């Protein structure tokens, strides 16, 4: 269904008197998972003033549709369990079967979150072993909109060897670990789109309110206007070449792809409107997020410092359930980046978001692929996100869930002493001597440094820099570094300031 047709249909549903039968949004369907321990929010459409009754888990709640046909109820919180039936009755009756109560997480971002299990490492073996009927998966159909939509398209599926292939690899391994650890049903709502920027996932209101981001919509519109004529000329030339090739019996050349500005999924706010806003009434535990390659590739590493934090704060405000856990993946090592890329700076911006409450970061500089932006090892990505969830969302406070995170630098004899959080039982050099460290003097020129572990700190120095004032670690797109804690979790790249 096209965006225009879908918007027209949704508009007609909310026209007074246009909808007689009681209905529910797509998120309410067979095999769904409802978040435990919070009020169960059920909402939908009916005729104006129509009496609506919702029955779930032995509780019944009644209401009446408003003048615009909208209705909602909140049922009492419940512990994990199932399967249950959910029934909604008005002028008609809607029954939903095989409903579980457990943990619900949203998985969002760009292609590395979309990347399916069938294209992940050991895919054949993993799919064959995917016998988890209490893990459920809802994949939001790709869509964009200039206005907030009220519904998405998609359906819930239970995980089995027949269904698991299309499941997000990161989402699957995250869900599997938590399901096995917690012993409760697990639901993943995937709302992700490959190649998309963070600003497309951020609401127009937040972009407008943040001075550093306020110009993004206007800049995108101006870029689109400039690109439209140029692209039209390219298409005309392609059509002529295609006609000539067809007449000569030759292969038709590939249609030129539209520039970024003419792809609606890149428009600021467009994905929030279509793929996030409709999810906001649904109860969730938290979000897992894998994105940043697009913004890094456009040289926006420093802008991302504010953009990413603003987006997290935006989603939390819009969901209205407090500072829910927001767990994200720091960009993996990757070597094929454009010259204008700010890959290390974007990793730094991601780490800065840890200043927000209830955030966690999965460091992946050790499991990327220098020649492939889509590394196949999604097992460790999902596991590291799940470790963060166990600590942040589920209270395993003694768990070492993160690799070392740089805290501060102090002067030490002829070098610098680097201090870290999340050292666990101690720091280690994986595979031999420490590597990946550099130091610089006041001239700002970085050189390779000697590095050694001293307790829970790292000492760095260089014969070429008599009085180092700055240090950095794994500071490259294809980052090289081997500092880990005793849990085997890698240290995050960083740079110090004077």
Count of DSSP H/I helices: 11
Radius of gyration: 25 Å
What is the approximate shape?
globular
Fraction of residues in β-strands: 25-35%
Q: How widely separated are the two ends?
A: 55 Å
What is the oligomer described by this structure?
single chain
Overall average residue pLDDT: 95
The secondary-structure class comes to: alpha/beta
Percent range for helical residues?
Answer: 25-40%
Number of strands: 23
Describe the largest sheet: 11 strands, mixed
Which spans of ≥5 residues are poorly predicted at pLDDT below 50? 1-18
What does this structure look like?
The chain has 498 residues and is α/β, with parallel strands linked by helices. It has a domain at 405-495. It is 25% helix and 26% strand. The chain contains 11 helices and 23 strands. Strands 1, 3, 4, 6, 7, 8, 9, 10, 11, 12 and 13 form an 11-stranded mixed β-sheet that branches. The protein has a 4-stranded antiparallel β-sheet with strand order 14-15-20-19, with no helix packed on it. The protein has a 4-stranded antiparallel β-sheet with strand order 18-17-21-23. A hairpin with a 5-residue loop joins strand 17 (437-440) and strand 18 (446-448). Helix 4 (169-182) packs across helix 11 (379-392). The termini are far apart. Mean pLDDT is 95; it is low at 1-18.
């Amino acid at each position: 269904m096209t965006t225009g047709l879908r918007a027209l249909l949704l508009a007609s549903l909310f026209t007074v008197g246009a909808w007689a039968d009681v209905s529910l949004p797509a998120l309410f369907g067979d095999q769904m998972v409802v978040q435990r321990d919070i009020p169960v929010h059920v909402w939908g459409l009916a005729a104006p003033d129509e009496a609506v009754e919702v029955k779930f888990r032995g509780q019944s709640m009644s209401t009446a549709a408003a003048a615009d046909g909208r209705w909602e109820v909140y049922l009492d919180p419940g512990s994990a369990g199932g399967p249950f039936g959910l029934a909604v009755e008005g002028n008609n009756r809607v029954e939903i079967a095989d409903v579980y109560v457990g943990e619900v997480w949203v998985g969002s971002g760009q292609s590395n979150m979309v990347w399916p299990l069938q294209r992940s490492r050991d895919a054949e073996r993993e799919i064959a072993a995917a016998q988890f009927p209490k893990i459920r998966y809802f994949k939001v159909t790709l869509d964009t909109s200039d206005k907030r939509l009220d519904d998405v398209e998609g359906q819930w599926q239970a995980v089995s060897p027949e269904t698991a292939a299309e499941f997000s690899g990161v989402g699957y391994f995250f869900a599997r670990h938590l399901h096995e650890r917690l012993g409760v049903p697990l639901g993943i709502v995937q709302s992700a789109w490959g190649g998309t920027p963070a600003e497309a996932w951020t609401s127009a209101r937040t972009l407008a309110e943040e001075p550093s981001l306020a110009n993004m919509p206007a800049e995108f519109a101006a870029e689109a206007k400039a690109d439209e004529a140029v692209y039209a000329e390219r298409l005309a030339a392609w059509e002529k070449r295609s006609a000539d090739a067809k007449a000569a019996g030759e292969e038709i050349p590939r249609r030129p792809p539209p520039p970024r500005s003419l792809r609606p999924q890149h428009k600021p706010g467009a994905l929030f409107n279509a793929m996030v806003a409709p999810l906001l009434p649904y109860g969730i535990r938290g979000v897992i997020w894998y994105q940043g390659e697009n913004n890094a590739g456009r040289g926006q590493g420093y802008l991302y410092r504010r953009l990413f934090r603003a987006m997290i704060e935006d989603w939390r405000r819009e969901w209205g359930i407090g500072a829910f856990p927001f767990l994200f993946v720091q960009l993996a090592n990757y070597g094929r980046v454009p010259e204008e890329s700010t890959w290390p700076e974007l990793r730094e911006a991601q780490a800065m978001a840890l200043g927000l409450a209830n955030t966690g970061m999965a460091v992946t500089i050790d499991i990327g692929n220098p020649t492939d932006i889509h590394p196949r090892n999604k097992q460790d990505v999902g596991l590291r996100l799940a470790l963060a969830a166990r600590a942040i969302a589920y209270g395993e406070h003694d768990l070492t869930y993160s690799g070392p995170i740089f805290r501060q630098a102090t002067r030490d004899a002829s070098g610098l002493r680097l201090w870290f959080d999340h050292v666990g039982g101690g720091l280690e050099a994986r595979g031999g001597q420490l590597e990946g460290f550099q130091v610089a003097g006041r001239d700002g020129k970085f050189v390779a440094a000697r590095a050694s572990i001293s307790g829970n700190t790292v000492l760095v120095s260089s014969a070429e820099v008599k009085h180092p004032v700055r240090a950095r670690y794994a500071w490259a797109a294809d980052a090289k570094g081997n500092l880990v804690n005793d849990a085997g979790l890698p240290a995050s790249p960083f740079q110090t300031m004077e």
